[in-house]
Amino acid sequence: MNSQRKACHRIRRGYTLAELLVASASASVLLVGIGSTLYVASQSLDESASPMRRETQASEVLADLMVDLKLALNFSERTPTALTFTVPDRDGDGLSETIRYAWSGTAGDPLTYAYNNSSPTNLADNVQNLNFTAITREMLAPVAAPSEGGADILFVSGGQRTYMFLQGYSVTPTEAELARITLMKSWGYTVEIISSVESQNKFDDCLDKASVVFVSAEASAAEVGNKLQNARIGVVNENPLLIDELGMAEATTSTSSNILIFNDTTHYITSEFGVSAIMGFTLSQPVTSVSGVVSPDLSSLGYWLSFIILNPEDPLLAPLALEPDPIAPGGSTGSLVVLEAGDRTYKGETVAGRRAQLPWGEGVDITQLTDDGEMLFCRTIAWGAGAGTPELATLLHVVEDSSSLTDEEAAYKALFESWNYEVLAIDED
Predict the structure, then answer these.
(1) Averaged pLDDT, 301-315
(2) Is residue 66 part of a domain?
(3) Which contacts of 67-76 are long-range, i.e. CB under 8 A and separated by 24 or more positions?
(4) How far is residue 285's CA from residue 325's CA, in Å, rounded to a whole number?
(5) Residues in a beta bridge with 121
(6) Nearest partner of 374 among 388, 386, 360, judged by Cα
(7) Are residues 179 and 101 part of one domain?
(8) CA contacts within 13 A on the Cβ side of 167
(9) pLDDT at 146
(10) pLDDT of residue 318
């Protein structure tokens, strides 16, 4: 019985030290071989070294650069290998941010990025070729040709007035209005001042002699009323409360800002800036945006940074990817808006002449305009006076007797001319 139990617990033979050493050495050799194989395989699959990955990285860097350049306000450095410029405030301190992209110019060196006073960081390594060279040009402020027998600008003032018997009202412009008049004269214009309280007949007489009307933000909208509704010359308006009478929209909304973003850079007013945004004022000022029901023909040229909405589709670029509020009834629209002669008002009537709404209003300090802000102001006045008008198309107007138009035929001729047609009356037979 005991012999059987001992047979069930037979002593097992162990491994000798020599056998263990040989096995360990063999396993080490095997592990080294496997590790080498994995290393070679991983190197062959290194995406960062592949041409496709390098091209993708370069595209991402250039995309970031283009987003920043789109909002560039001004440049302090612009060389073939470096760009230093400012962009609108991104951290809420009310100050512009400074960005610098730089490359040494030596193949293999990195492209660096610096934000404000931070140390440069590498955006892309092993850069072989990069050139920031750009074409630059100087821009001169436009000046419209003066009207014959009158002033270039009819300035509608809200200043103190004194009634002069048989002569109408003598008006003393406010200090803010004098600052605007000084600017206009520095651009080469002559200015005639008219009180907003003057009669329709007085307005009509002055309109016949002027090239463009400027309505001060301090002029009374109630007193001006519809006196400019049938003006065939351009009207540049600074008074937000007059937006309804000019037919652009029901109303305006206001905020404070100093960065104006263009959403149309092809129009005469904005075409010469060469950038997508400008710093209009050195400090934030009261600014406006058209709101409510708007004219279906209203053209929005720009909007203030304070009126933007972030693009929810692109969280990587927010808050840099900006979109203006759409021009639609019931919603906030552009800040710098215009109508051409012949366009429809928001009430469905026909606009007699060009109309422009400046993107600021009462309370703005015009002395805070930057050079770009002054250029925008000047080009808006010039556009209202007829600058940027395309060549007239000729319209044949068939009438009974071209040498003696009837009242109805003359009215049609005047209407066609208000739409910028050159009208040639011909006899029907």
Answers:
(1) 63
(2) yes
(3) 67/317, 67/320, 67/321, 68/99, 68/101, 68/320, 70/276, 70/277, 70/320, 71/261, 71/276, 71/277, 71/320, 71/322, 72/275, 72/277, 73/259, 73/275, 73/277, 73/278, 73/279, 74/279
(4) 20
(5) 113
(6) 360
(7) no
(8) 8
(9) 45
(10) 39
2 phi and psi angles, rounded to 5 deg:
-70, -35
Residues 373 and 405 in one domain: no
- Residue type for 118, please? S
User: pLDDT band for position 58 (50/70/90)?
Assistant: confident
Strand bridging mode 234-237 / 82-87: unpaired
Residue-level pLDDT at 316: 36
Q: Are 318 and 324 in contact (CB under 8 A)?
A: no
Kindly tell me if the per-residue pLDDT of 343 is higher than 70. Answer: yes
Collapsed DSSP state (helix, strand, coil) of residue 286? strand
DSSP secondary structure, 17-55, as one string: HHHHHHHHHHHHHHHHHHHHHHHHHHHHT-GGGSHHHHH
CATH assignment at residue 269: 3.40.50.880
At residue 147, the 3 state secondary structure works out as coil
Distance CA(175)–CA(341), nearest Å, equals 33
* Angle (deg, nearest 10), helices 175-186 and 371-384: 80
What average pLDDT does the segment 399-428 reach? 78
CB-CB contact of 83 with 101 (8 Å): yes
Question: Could you write out the DSSP letters of every residue in 387-425?
Answer: TTPPPPEEEEEEES-TTS--HHHHHHHHHHHHTTEEEEE
* Pair of tokens at residue 333: 């629209």
Q: Are 315 and 326 in contact (CB under 8 A)?
A: no
Global pTM reads 0.60
Q: Express each pLDDT in 189-242 by its tens digit.
A: 999 999 999 999 999 999 999 999 999 999 999 999 999 999 999 999 999 999
**High-pLDDT (> 90) share of the chain, %:** 40
Q: In whole angstroms, how far apart are CA 190 and each of 9, 50, 89? A: 123, 66, 38
Place of tokens 């940027």: 388
Residue 46 covered by a domain: no
Can you name the residues that pair with 101 across neighbouring β-strands? 83, 113
> Of the candidates 345, 338, 342, 343, which has an alpha carbon nearest to the alpha carbon of residue 418?
342
Query: Does 319 sit behind a cis peptide bond, omega within 30 degrees of 0 on the bond before it?
Result: yes
**pLDDT tens across 117-172, in order?**
899 999 888 888 888 775 444 455 454 444 444 469 999 999 887 776 666 678 89
Domain membership of residue 410 as a residue range = 393-427
Q: Are 379 and 272 in contact (CB under 8 A)?
A: yes
Number of domains in the chain: 3
Q: What CA dihedral angle connects 204, 208, 210 and 212, to 10 degrees?
A: 70
Both ends of the chain: CA-CA distance in Å? 145
